[in-house]
Amino acid sequence: MAEAHQAVAFQFTVTPEGLDFHLSREAVKQLYLAGISSWKKRLVRAKNSFLTGVYPASPSSWMVVVMATAGSFYCQVDPSLGMIARIRHCLPESRLLSYESRTMVSTALFSTGVWLSAVLLFRQALKLLLSYHGWMFEPHGKMSRSTRIWVALMKVLSVRKPLLYSFQTSLPKLPVPPVEATITRYLESVRPLMDDEKYSKMEALAKEFKEKTAPRLQKYLILKSWWTTNYVSDWWEQYIYLRSRSPLMVNSNYYAMDFLYVTPSHIQAARAGNTVHAILLYRRKLDRGEIPPVSTRGAGGVWVGAVGSGAPVGQWASPAPHPHGSGCWTLGPAVGVSWGVEVVGLGGFAGEWASPAPHSHAPSARPPGRPWVGAAACGSEWVPWAEARARFFSHGKNKASLDAIERAAFFLTLDEEEHGYSPGQEGCMDAYAKSLLHGQCYDRWCRRPVCHGCTSPQCRAAIEGSYRLAKALADDVDFCCFQFSSFGKGLIKKCRTSPDAFIQISLQLAHFRDKGSFCLTYEASMTRLFREGRTETVRSCTAESTAFVRSMGDTRQTRAERQRLFKLAAEKHQHMYRMAMTGAGIDRHLFCLYVVSRYLGVQSPFLAQVLSEPWRLSTSQTPQQQLKLCDLNKYPDHVSSGGGFGPVADDGYGVSYIIAGENLITFHVSSKFSSSETDSKRFGRNIRQAMLDVAELFD
Asked: Of 471, 511, 529, 614, which shows the fewest CB atoms inside 10 Å?
């Protein structure tokens, strides 16, 4: 290990003859390479910062401006209108600088000033263009004149290939919506969920809040939006991600599956090696800013390649260790034994990587008496975990092991059991999902992890207690993961609606059939059109969707009427999604108003009621990122199964779905066995039938 080399790099002893000095040549070499690596990283980051700062201009454009100005000046044409002469006059006279030399320096300085002014002008123009969101609200297949002009200008300003953060500082700030508009949209969203009496009480609370408390809170929030890049992101990270005291496993973490039908290799170590290699390739692109910014598509079919990267990578809350280490900590199959593997040389950007070949042999049995220390990271709540860390892992071998693990780039777990899609094997995808989400409760790292080496009975007792909690949490998760292959987005588009709206309305129908009632529904949307944007909530249960759902159970309703109600529901959903993406959502604004009220010590019954409402149906669509890497028309077997997450409410469902290709949608449904109101397999059957029933309306 590099730490061992550094420890013995320099040794000296005091002898009667003087100081005996020993130098480790290998250690000095490693330190030299580490220094070279550090400087290379700094240079690359400095270069990327410069290129990002002057985008959409480039260093070559500066040379063009300098040469054009110099050529014009020497052709007896002064484009500076005397500015070059004034700059030359201000330069100190010296024998080292002749008249011609001072003229050249003056020309370069003037040209640089013109170039920087143009850069600022172009960046302001880009910022204004990125503030235009009218393209999102245009009908599919149609484009207004203003949008056409906007597209043309965006193409002109985006002609140079951008780096990852080229658009970041040009993105507009997330606007603070008017309080009255947010409250109006909130009341509209809860109307189909409340009877007249409850709704009247909520209206009264909202009115009191709007007239008495909200104006003061809104002023503080607007002030915060002026001096921060995003008025939501820092509080969202602090209070939603970092202040939670529940175990991360099941409650916060998520999982992602591999290809559905294809397994590149059945040799576990080979797949592990290639996975590590691919992750490091991606990390190098990330460090160099070579990953292109995220693009999005408008309702009019406009591809916008200048949306930017949203929140900087690295700000997202993650249970993984720090991403800038050079090692990989590997967990052996089902035994809770971990060991470190050096995967990147000290050369850093130019360092030599380990070959993606099998790198170690995993132990085949759990050593006797070895505690399941992974359970301490998975099952414990934050306060007990912090106490155990301070008590058992703050000194000695445990501290050294913990420090080594936390410096690793990531964790790689080698499972003993094989999971995946097996045609004809019922429940295989359910077991696959549970394995990815929580594993055996001791072979996953869910937060800053701990390492083996515990010997005290108190430490063992703490780990065993965490394991029991993690096991109970994992055993309570009810998963149903299935492929819906009757149709995909190809048929949905023939219904003249968006696939996401189609699925969300079908989920409302399925939930009503499953529970006999409607519930507050969460769908995640992005706010990456704004600087450091993260997510916003789309409240998918609307008055329009509930009207359609009720019509499906009313035998008196005609097919034409159901089609009309469905189109109204779909249009409403798409409108709400666009509003959320353009900064006019509901929940992030109310959340920030609540945070301000807590800082000021102001009690608001309205905000307390809003933030206490449970999301009994939490949904999310997994984006199909692999389309850029693989042509699914040519390789239809290379579709992804997407990923999923645990239920948000104890008596609710979590639903994730991925629209893969033209004829496949994969659903991941989660709930808890302990709830008598939920059954993931039953809900999965209702989803299948609801999708078919909605599609039948348009046959």
From this structure: 614
pLDDT tens digits for range 304-329: 444 444 333 322 223 333 444 555 55
Determine how β-strand 521-526 pairs with β-strand 617-621: parallel
Distance from the Cα of residue 208 to its chain's centroid: 37
Determine the residue type at 220.
Y
- Tens digits of per-residue pLDDT, 526-557? 998 999 998 999 999 999 999 999 999 999 99
Q: How far apart are CA 464 and CA 468, in angstroms?
A: 6
Query: Given this model, what pLDDT does residue 260 score?
Result: 85
Rounded to whole angstroms, the Cα distance separating 404 from 451 reads 9
Q: Is the dihedral of CA 589, 590, 592, 593 positive or negative?
A: positive
Superfamily for 479-697?
Chloramphenicol acetyltransferase-like domain (3.30.559.10)
Structure tokens at 301: 């079919």
Write the DSSP string, 479-526. Answer: EEEEEE-S--HHHHHHTTS-HHHHHHHHHHHHHHHHHSS---EEEEEE
Contact 147, 135 (CB under 8 A): yes
User: Distance (Å, rounded) from C-alpha 689 to C-alpha 698?
Assistant: 15
Phi then psi for residue 483, to 5 deg, are: -100, 130
Give me the mean pLDDT over the 101-109 stretch: 87
DSSP letter for each residue of 385-408: HHHHHHHHSSSHHHHHHHHHHHTS
- For 488-501, how does the pLDDT look when each residue is reduced to its tens digit (9 = 90+)? 888 898 888 899 99
Strand ranges inside 577-642, DSSP E: 617-621
pLDDT the model gives residue 467: 83
Rounded to whole angstroms, how far apart are CA atoms 244 and 447? 13
Sign of CA dihedral 150, 151, 153, 158: positive
**What is residue 192's predicted lDDT score, i.e. its pLDDT?**
95
Q: Is residue 293 predicted with pLDDT exceeding 60?
A: yes
> Do residues 107 and 91 touch, judged by C-beta distance below 8 A?
no
Where do the H-state alpha helices sit in 171-311?
A: 179-190, 196-208, 214-227, 233-235, 268-288
Q: Which pTM does this prediction carry?
A: 0.85
C-alpha span between 485 and 663 (Å, rounded): 6
Average model confidence (pLDDT) for the chain?
82
What CA dihedral angle connects 318, 321, 327 and 330, to 10 degrees? Answer: -90
Q: Quick: pLDDT tens for 426-435.
A: 889 999 999 9
Instruction: Give the domain ranges of the chain.
Output: 21-52, 55-131, 479-697
> What's the CA angle centered on 313, arms 307 and 316, to 5 degrees?
110
Instruction: Return the structure tokens found at 437.
Output: 């989400």
d(CA 346, CA 470): 38
Two tokens, residue 218:
């809104």
pLDDT in tens, 624-641: 765 566 777 788 888 888
Least reliable range by pLDDT among 8-22, 398-412, 590-604: 8-22
Six-digit token pair at 478?
């009810």
- Report the alpha-carbon distance of residue 50 to residue 102 in Å, rounded: 27
Look at 257 and 338; give whichever has higher pLDDT.
Answer: 257
- Do 272 and 280 form a contact (C-beta atoms < 8 A)? no
Q: Are 192 and 546 in contact (CB under 8 A)?
A: yes
Two tokens, residue 273? 């090696």
Q: Report the interhelical angle of 559-581 vs 543-552 (nearest 10°).
A: 150
